[in-house]
Design a protein that fits this description.
Layout (H helix, E strand, L loop, with lengths): L15 E5 L8 E7 L4 E4 L14 E5 L3 H4 L16 E5 L13 E5 L3 E2 L19 E5 L17 E7 L5 E6 L30 E4 L13 E5 L5 E3 L19 E6 L7 E7 L5
Antiparallel strand pairs: 1-2, 1-4, 2-3, 5-6, 5-8, 6-7, 9-15, 10-14, 11-12, 11-14, 12-13
């Protein structure tokens, strides 16, 4: 049916995206903006379909939203505008630079609220795939249970590479049900080798999930030395490739250094199903 995959707050509340399963774009995804009986219109953003050929397979999937992930506020402590017990903070994916602060926050009272727009129900806000969400609790620990299909398809995560030789923070996560080690992550395709431990170019920054605090800084830094071996900053001997950096439900920062180009570019970190 026409526009059956296009979001409409009244008649079609799902935000669909097209996930490429095969071909040069395997793992990449694009939001659906319209469809006909035999056509599909997608938002390419800054990407393109170069290399896509007839026969490449895609899957149409609905995005997670606040209502889908936390239905009726499950897994969070209800709040008020003046006393927020649980906040969901959305990380910044568009500003240039490092040490970026979250750009959006939401809380739940009788529905999901955006402090900047209290009259609207924000439950249909999309939670972008491969982008971590920060849950901030003031006094009560919470536990959210997420129910869905285990993702087994190839995943492709866009990584911003800044202009010049400055650095750019990319907040990322893997949608995998099992931990993934650095050596099995496929990050070698986007994390460049560093000349030495004194001059580290690309970094993988990991948070300590056991630390109780707000506005935490990453505690662990990993990089590839001049032999291509994964190292933890401060330990120049141990091979860190077996560290399970990507654990279910957590996010990390890939701090990417520019290669001297005149403009920002995007590279894609591709990860195949680890349990195939």
């Amino acid at each position: 049916n026409t526009d059956q995959f296009k979001f409409n707050a009244t008649t079609q509340p799902e935000h669909y995206y097209a996930l490429f399963l095969t071909g040069t774009h395997a793992g990449r995804q694009f939001d659906v903006t319209a469809n006909g009986a035999n056509t599909l219109t997608i938002d390419l953003g800054s990407d393109n379909l170069a290399g896509v050929v007839a026969g490449d397979r895609i899957k149409l999937l609905p995005h997670w939203t606040l209502d889908a992930a936390f239905p009726e506020g499950s897994g969070v402590t209800p709040s008020t505008f003046f006393q927020k017990q649980t906040e969901l903070l959305v990380q910044d994916t568009s500003t240039s630079g490092i040490n970026l602060a979250p750009v959006k926050s939401f809380y739940f009272d009788s529905d999901w609220k955006d402090p900047g727009n209290l009259t609207a129900d924000s439950g249909s806000i999309v939670l972008p795939t491969h982008r971590p969400l920060l849950v901030r609790n003031q006094s009560n620990a919470t536990s959210a249970v997420f129910v869905g299909v285990v993702p087994s398809d190839t995943q492709s995560v866009p990584i911003r590479v800044p202009a010049g030789t400055s650095k750019q923070d990319n907040f990322v996560s893997l949608n995998r049900p099992v931990p993934v080690k650095l050596r099995d992550s496929g990050l070698e395709s986007v994390v460049s080798v560093s000349p030495s431990f004194v001059t580290i170019t690309d970094e993988v920054l990991v948070y300590d999930e056991t630390q109780i605090a707000i506005n935490k800084s990453p505690r662990f830094t990993y990089y590839r030395d001049n032999t291509g071996t994964w190292r933890a900053f401060g330990d120049f001997v141990t091979d860190a490739g077996d560290v399970e950096v990507f654990t279910p439900g957590t996010g990390v920062i890939i701090r990417k250094q520019g290669t001297g180009g005149a403009t920002e570019t995007t590279v894609y970190w591709t990860h195949a199903d680890p349990i195939q």
